[in-house]
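Sequence only, no structure available. Ideas?
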Amino acid sequence: MSYLSRAVKNPRTDAGYCITGGNIAVIDFGTASVSLAFTTKGDQLVNILPLDTQTRSIRVPNIVLLKKEGCKIRVGAFGADAKKRFVSLRSSDCVNYIYFERIKMLMRREQAVDRQTLVESFSGEKYYLVEVIAFILQYLKDLLINHFSRTVRPLKTTDFDWVITVPAIWDARGKRMMREAAYLAGLLTESGGINHLTAQSCSPIPPPDEVNPDKLSLALEPESAAIYSQEVTGAQIEYGLSKASISRPTKYMVIYIGGGTVDITAHTETFDCIRVENTPTGNAWGGTQVNKAFSQLLQKLVHDPDYKKFLASGEQSRQMAIINSILYAEFEEQKVIFGDCKSKEMTIELHPKFANCYDKEIVAKVKEMEGIDYEDYTLFIDESVVESHLFGPALRGIINCIEEAIKVCGSKIDTFYLVGGFGSCKYIHEKVTAAIKEVKGSHCNVIVPVSPHLAVATGAAMWRKNPGIIKARRSDATYGIPVTIPFNSEKHDEHYKYFDDEEDIYRCKNVFCVFLEKGEMVNTDEVISIDLRPASVADTQMFIDIYSTPNVGTQYTVDKKGNSTVTKIGQLVLDVPNPDNLPKSQRLADISMDFSGTEIQAKAKYVTRKEVKTVCDFLSA
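Reply:
I predicted one. Tokens follow.
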């Protein structure tokens, strides 16, 4: 089915990204953990900043403890230290703290986040998600700037080009939220920052001021991992050419499996340039699904859905923190050990308060279940149960996703990179390798690059040095806007016909003017162009709704029953002043939409042919 209206592709007249000054900071904002990478002008290496001053850990849990200080709020602790401090708080002090864990999972594509999206703290209070993220980003920024304040080359916030990593499978809303959180965090200015949480109200929180937007880029996790993997694998092949069993891959698939998401892209490399060959593919079967499976098993053992008895036995937020300490600290440690094939069983020590609360229930239930023992507050889980009940569901979700991606572009692929904290563990590597070779044959290569848990952070810094390395990407959806156009009886349905009194012609309404079709290749040297006019002479701003659909061939934005055929994902806001009181016919705005990058961007020129302020707002409810 052909489209009734399509925007035009034109050559780009400007660079897609501003040239970096050489100082780059990357925040790898993962579901389960975060890391911070940086490189400075003249330095060829990418460094990872230790985020835990005691353990010198370079990747720490994505956990934040906010402290109330009068009418202001600051980060009291972050990472494992936040969990430790929160659990050890006196009951009388809990009211002065707000505690969050793993908030990124709220931003999955299907969640349709906006500025009003709330996140619940462990104490049950709800806050705006974008502001909580901003506190975390601000804390990480301050760590980096404090690090450089003690060196011979003190650097300020604005000396850096900032990069935040995001899943490729996120939609425009999730990406926009990370950008606006960065604005709130003061990532791009020397002043400002966030020091309070907005009280919930009926009025939407306003968008933040966009200051130095070109100083922030969003890097896609699998693309960043691909750049890193190719770099380190290529170097290993080059320096060990006589012993290398493969040549540098040119057609490869990156399978990023982190704590929250599976994110897969297939790439073709030609003359040091990369084309992304598939629409981003993935799901939510990351490593935390194993923790959730253990939680389900534990609830069965204690015979108490949602741990209601334990939560009621003390201050709820503290009790919840103890539960999460079991699920995401004690169990996480055992998950890593089993994942690295260093043990055939799991040994999980339960917190004494939790164990005492449920001791009788656990003892009774364990007798009914094979493969599980219990002694001295400790659960012993046999390999068969670990594989079938804990790792099994996540592994099936991962393999199904990989097999679907291979069906789309697998014939072109001969190398597969496994990256991410969960994807690179030995157990997952062995199972995924076997599944891939069953589909592709034994000739393909499944590679875990060196330091796979840092592939995204390091690769994102490499990408920001040379963003032009990615030459083309495929559109993840069909995008467009609703327009009215002169009615054509040979093309248009009579149902959408109406008479325009002002222009004295028949028009067709609700036409879906398509910018890009799902799966269409978008080159980085081209933009989508369309000319539009304000709705009335009095208008000094234009508000253009942007819609998307996962379908191909959609012609109208509503069907004959009045149901929407597309989904509004955002709005383009243009400043179009009219001091000379020009008629509508002379107030043409030339709009250029860029879908080739990691975010949807727009620019517009107005009557004077000068660029006017243009904002892509994807977060208004």
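The domain at 24-220 is CATH 3.30.420.40 (Nucleotidyltransferase; domain 5).
Hope that gets you unstuck.
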